Amino acid sequence: MNNQKLIFSILIFFLIICIQNLYAVQTVFKPILSNIQNIDKIENKSKVLNDIFIFFNEKIDLDKFSGEWGLKNKYALKTPNAYVFFAQNNDHIQKILPELREKKFIDGVFQDKIVFFVPHNDLLPPEPITISDPFYFPNSRQDWYGQWHLERTNVPEVWKQGIGGKGVVVGILDSGIDYEHEDLRGNYKTESSYDFSCRYLTYYDAEHDILSCGDDDPSSESNLEHHGTQVVGLASASVNNLGVVGVAPHSKFSSLRVLPPENINSGYIQNFKIDMRSMRESGFADAMLYASDRKTSLQNRIHIKNGSFGVATPYNLYKSIVYAIEKSTKAGTIHVQSASNDRSFVMEDANKSFYLNRPEVITVAASDYYDKFASYSSFGSNVFISAPAGTKIEGIPDYSIPHNTTTKLERSQHAVISLQENDFDNNKYTRFFSGTSASAPIVSGILALAKQVNPQLNTRMAKHLLVKSSTVIDRNDNSESSQGGWQTNGAGNYFNPNYGFGLINAEKFVALARNVKGVTELKIINNIN
Q: How far apart are CA 7 and CA 44, in angstroms?
C-alpha cells in the first residue's frame, strides 16, 4: 500500500513538472507561433483580387474587349499594350481565364493579387579611372574600413583599365530612391525610371480603394524609404570627389519603385515583427518587364535589374512574375537577386523562394570581411555567387564590425547609432549597410563593368563566366548548411550552398567577358535512370 502511494506521489510530481514545462515552452515560443499565425493570416487573407491583368500582342479596342468579356478597364500598366481589368467576381475570372489564354492576340493573362516582399558603362575611356572620393577605402580614416568591398572583389583593377560601366543601365527594383543625392544625381536616368506602387485608402484595397497606381516620380516619399538609396550607391554612385564611389561609377541607374515605404499599408501588420511590404502582383510583373523588351528603344533599355528583397512566405508561385522574368531575360536583361537574410528562420533555404530558383536569375549570397558566410545569409543549391557585406558577431557591437559604406537618404535616421559612432558628419552616407541587399548590387555593378566591354553579355553568358572566374573562400567550411563543404560538380567546378561558386572576382570576370565569343545554346536532357 505504501509503495502504491509512493508511486502515485511520484507520478503526480512528474505530471506537475510536465505541465510547468509545457507552459514554459508555450510562453517561450508564443511570439514565434504568433508570427507564424500572422503569416497564415496574411497568406489566407483575401489577397486574391477581382482583377485580371493582360499583356496583349497588339493594340486592341478596350471598350469592345471589355464588353465582350464582362470586364471593366481600370488602368494601363507601364508595359505597352498591358492593362488591368475589374471582373464581377472570382467565379467570373475562373470561367474566362482558360478561354483568354487560348487567344492568339494575348501574350499573357493573370489574376491579380496582393503579394508580400521583405527588404532583405566610346567603349573604353583613354585613361584609367582615378578615385579621390573621401570615403573610398584608401582615403578613409584608419579606424574606418571604408569601401573595403571594392578591394576585396578586385574592382580597382578593372578601373585601371578605364572600365567604369559606361553605356550600361542598372535598374533598381526597390523602395523610392533619393535621385537628387549629390553622389547619385549625375548617373540617374529619368527616361527609364518609374513608380509602380499603388496608394490605398485602406490597407487591403480589394477593388475600390485605390487612390492611384504608378507615376513618373519614383523618389522616396518618407524618411523610412532609405533602402533603395543605399542599394544603388553600391552599384552606381558617381566618381566625383564626393563621398563614395559605386562599383560601376560610369553606369546609369533607373529607379523602379516597387516597395512602398514601411509606414504605408502597415495597419494590418503593425505588430508583425518581420518587415513586410505589399505590392500588387500586376505592378511587380510590370516592373520586371519595363524597359527590358525589344520594343523599348535602345537608349532607354535597362540592361541589368537588381532586386534586393525576398518573398515573405515560402513556396508561393506567382506565374505572372515567372512570365515577366522569362520574357525580360529573352530580351537580354540580366536579373540579379539577393538570396535573403533568413538563416535560422523559415526562409533560410533560398530554394523556398520561387523566383530564386529560376535559371534566368543570378542569386547572390553574402560573405563578410573575414571571408566567411554572413551570419544571416540564406543558403541553397540555387545560390550562384557571393559578394561582400557586413555580418553580426555575438558580443561585438555593429560599429566595430566592417559593413558596406554607401549613399544614404539624408533625412533618414536609419543606420545612425549615435553621434560618437555616427556614419559621417554630413549624414548623406552610411557605413552600416549590410545584408544580401548589399551584396546583390555589388554583383550588378560588376556585371555592368563586363557589359561595357562585351555588349552581348546576357544571363547565360554571365553565369558561365562567373563560374569560371569566382574565388573559392572559406575552404575549410564544413557547416551543416554547406552539406559537406566545397565539392566538385559534374563539370569540375567547386560549389558550396553557402557561397555558390565562390566570391565574385571583377578583374577575372571582366577579362573573360572581353574575350568570350559566346556560349552554346541551352540543351535540356531528360535522362533519368
A: 49
Chain-centre distance of CA 304, in angstroms? 12
Q: For the stretch 5-33, what's the b/e string if a residue is b when 16 or more beta carbons lie within 10 angstroms of its beta carbon?
A: eeeeeeeeeeeeeeeeeeeeeeeeeeeee
Residue type present at position 226: H
Cα–Cα distance for residue pair 160/73, rounded to 1 Å: 54
Rounded-to-integer distance, Cα 281 and Cα 432, Å: 32
User: What is the H or E stretch that residue 257 is in?
Assistant: strand 252-257
280 Cα distance to chain centroid: 17
Residue 503 near residue 473, CB atoms below 8 Å: yes
* Residue labelled with grid coordinates 569540375: 492
Q: Are the C-beta atoms of residues 85 and 74 closer than 8 Å to each other?
A: yes
d(CA 197, CA 205): 13
Beta bridge partners of 439: none
What is the mean pLDDT of the segment spanning 322-347?
93
Q: Give 278-304 pLDDT, tens digit per residue.
A: 678 898 899 999 998 777 777 889 999
According to DSSP, residue 496 is labeled B
Distance CA 197, CA 210 (A): 11
Per the CB < 8 A criterion, the answer to whether 386 and 503 are in contact is: yes
Using DSSP, state whether 363 is helix, strand or coil: strand
Mean pLDDT computed over every residue of the chain: 81
Decide which of 166 and 26 is more confident: 166
Q: What is the pLDDT of residue 211?
A: 56
Pairing assessment for the beta strands 82-87 and 71-76 based on DSSP bridges: antiparallel
pTM recorded for the entire structure = 0.83
CB of 471 closer than 8 Å to CB of 119: no
Mean local confidence (pLDDT), 511-526:
84
State the Cα–Cα distance between residues 378 and 350, nearest whole angstrom: 6
Beta strands in 313-352 (DSSP E): 334-338
What is the helix (H) or strand (E) element at residue 73, kind and residue range? strand 71-76
Nearest CA to 176 out of 226, 219, 232, 233 is that of 219
Residues 440-476 as b/e (b if ≥16 CB within 10 A, e otherwise) read bbbbbbbbbbbbbbbeebbbbbbbebbbebbbbbbee
% of the chain residues with pLDDT over 90? 57
